Amino acid sequence: MRKSERIVAENPQEMIWLRFNRLKSLKMCESLMREKNLNLSEKQKLEDDLIKKKSVGLSSAIESALGFWNSSSESLNAKVLSRYYALLQLTIAEQVSSVENKDDLEKIQRHTEFGHGLGIIRNLKDSFPKNFFVFILRSGHFYSFSKSLGLNIKDISFERRPRDYNSIENKENLISLLDLFRCVPELQPVINDYLNELPLSFQISYNNSKKRIEARNKAVLEDATSKENQSVPKEKTTYISLFPESEEITLEYLNGLNLPIKNIEEDRGLIDERIFVGEFTHSAEGYWQQYMDTYKSSHSGTSIIVPILNKISDPILIHLMILYSLSIIVRYLPDIWYEISSGELDHIGSLIEYYLSIVDKVIPLEMLKRITERDIDISMPGSLFGPV
Q1: What is the value of pTM for the model shown?
Q2: Mean pLDDT along residues 94-104
Q3: For 188-200, what is the mean pLDDT?
Q4: What are the E-state strand segments in 231-319?
Q5: Residue 251 CA: distances (Å) to CA of 27, 246, 267, 322
Q6: S-S: 207 plus which of 195, 203, 239, 281, CB 3.0-4.6 Å?
């Protein structure tokens, strides 16, 4: 069972970084690694030497991440680079701190020596950002990190870096920067304004409509009585509400996406707002939240993300690809960056500023939770959830 940790702070962001500062200490890192190791079975437990190596790697990665994140420059291009390299180091910290693998910093570096594991390519016959794609390589950090998360992306990765857009046979494995932005849950309310595109993430909740619950219970009862064997059903269906951020989101649009929610219908909510309701079938044991991959942050309600290439819905992997793409533009494509910062693409520059503000507010806490493997709650002093 995950440990819980409460942080009381008037300035949550400052306290999160102070909490990260503790992990610059080798002693604190070793204490965290030994705590994680205690939860493993005797067969799974890591050897003492590996714990020490992982502790060194964690401390080193955190110190490097903080160095990048605390960069004082406020210029947009410098901020893009600092956030990308900070997140890169935090993903290394997550991988090296996991007790589910035997990766120490030296082993992880063998992958990073082959590069970031991502690449970009443009369709020169189209306009930005529709023509800007990122692809995954079957080597380097991104592939290694994804594997450490239990994600097999071999079938959507490229063995070799393609030379140009027209030479690529499996273009379906390219990921557009446009779609990556559309997947960020915190951008749901604004993505249509900036890009004239609909989001690929949606806020959801349990639908407690009495009519639907009665219909479901009746169906379950009829199914049980119609069977000779009165066994406990292995699956059950839960009704889920989806809240559209735009009137342009239609039933046809939602049903055309690879969502785990099926048989979606348009409905009206408790205050007569427009919603969609669908069915989510899952194991009869436990609650629906245990079986649906959801995301929530201080700037986003509980949401689902349409999996990229039917595989990737981890928000950190999505942020890593976005920031990598932006860092390539900043470093190597000054003509595009000029248009973004001062020219006809200045609406993209505004989106990037908005996006980086979200990054600063949600990624540090998300990565702190993932690295420590703790549920961290932050409350204001004197608030309802503050200490008595």
Answers
A1: 0.92
A2: 95
A3: 96
A4: 235-243, 262-268, 274-283, 295-297, 300-305
A5: 54, 12, 10, 28
A6: 239
Question: 123 phi and psi, to 5 degrees?
Answer: -90, 100
**Is a pLDDT exceeding 80 seen at residue 251?**
yes
**What amino acid is encoded at 135 in this protein?**
F
Q: How far apart (Å, rounded) are the C-alpha atoms in residues 21 and 317?
A: 24
Strands 201-206 and 262-268: unpaired
Residues in the chain: 388
Sign of torsion, CA 21 25 29 34? negative
Q: Any idea which residue has 């380097």 for tokens?
A: 140
Domain ranges across the chain: 3-198+308-379, 201-305
- Local structure of 295: helix, strand or coil: strand
Given a contact cutoff of 8 angstroms between Cβ atoms, the answer to whether 71 and 58 are in contact is no
What do you get for the CA distance between the two ends of the chain, in Å? 26
Specify the pairing of strand 374-379 against strand 3-8: parallel
Asked if the model's pLDDT at residue 208 lies above 90, the reply is: no
pLDDT higher than threshold 80 for residue 12: yes
Residue 209, pLDDT score = 75
Helix, strand, coil % over all residues of the chain, rounded to 5: 50, 20, 35
